[in-house]
Amino acid sequence: MRGKIVGVPMIAMPNIAMPTISALLLVAACGLVSCAAEVPSVIHTSSTPKSPSWLIKPPQAPDALYFSGMKAGAETLDDGKNAATDRARDEASKFVGVEVSSKHIDVQSSDLGAESQSMTDTVQSRAQALIRSAEIVDVYWEKNSRSAGATTIDQFDVSVLIKLPRAEVEAERKRQADEAKSTVAAMLARYREGAGQEKSGNALAALVRYRDAIKQLLGVSREVATDDAQIPNAGQLRSLAQDAANRVQQKARRAVLIGSDLAFGPLTQALSKKGFSARTQPQSGPEAALAAARNDGLPYVIQVTLNTAQGGHVFSQVAATVSLDVRVLDSQSGALVASVQKAAKGVGRTPDAAERAGAEDAGMGAGADLAAALLARENSGL
Asked: Which pTM value belongs to this model?
């Protein structure tokens, strides 16, 4: 009799081959790799879970004014906060006084100054003290961190909200408006003084007044009213003063040239480089030249005195030393307004040629120095 083997009943198992299990393990491994690859390269954090509403529109209050500023991509939080605060202050400056940080560049048809053909004036306002006292109400920042090898690079986008007392702001705006009104009234009178001087033939005095009006009006809004029927606002007044200055400058840089004519050519050539022109009257004396200049509205008489000292031989040539004494007289009063002394050595085949060579060098040098002195006189306002 055969015996039975009694044991635990066999449970049928799915027929899973070894290659199939390996495939499942490979899929699981790939899943892990894929999860690791999805880790973000930049980690974003912020000072609060939700950005404040003032980023879109600053709040309003009856007793305060709010302004915001933003700096993107700062290397540190402090740098971002400082830059954002400055930008918020700039916004406040534009409200308190539009001209606080404005820059005016007016290109002239010819140089009104001694150094360039442009006049640049950066308008500063006393309102800066008020702006810098603004209270920082809130700071919001967002940080972006990314890995770079073994280090982490952070960048901050920072926004700042500042507050100013409304009463102080309004008082400052009123002060600026009153000051602008007063300046415009004074410069309208100054412009008309210039027109009177121009009409009487005193071109230089007219130029000084026109320039003064232009300079003072640079810091004033063009819309400020003058209360004058002919010139209604500061913008038109400044434009008229600018046109008048450009026109009269040509008259203010003219002269009658008398004296030793040997240096006239190089002297006038050097003067012309700075916008000066001279009419030669070599046979005229000072009194006759002054009368002619006044009659024609020329502001200056330039008198040239030349002395020559003959030198010895230089190989097959001869030398001469030429000394120039150049004096500028005011045509209205006859007073001496500028003087230049210049000496130069010339060499030529004849004594006359050596003298001409020396006069040319001395004349060019004297003309350049003279132009600089007359320009300095213009810019100083006489």
From this structure: 0.60
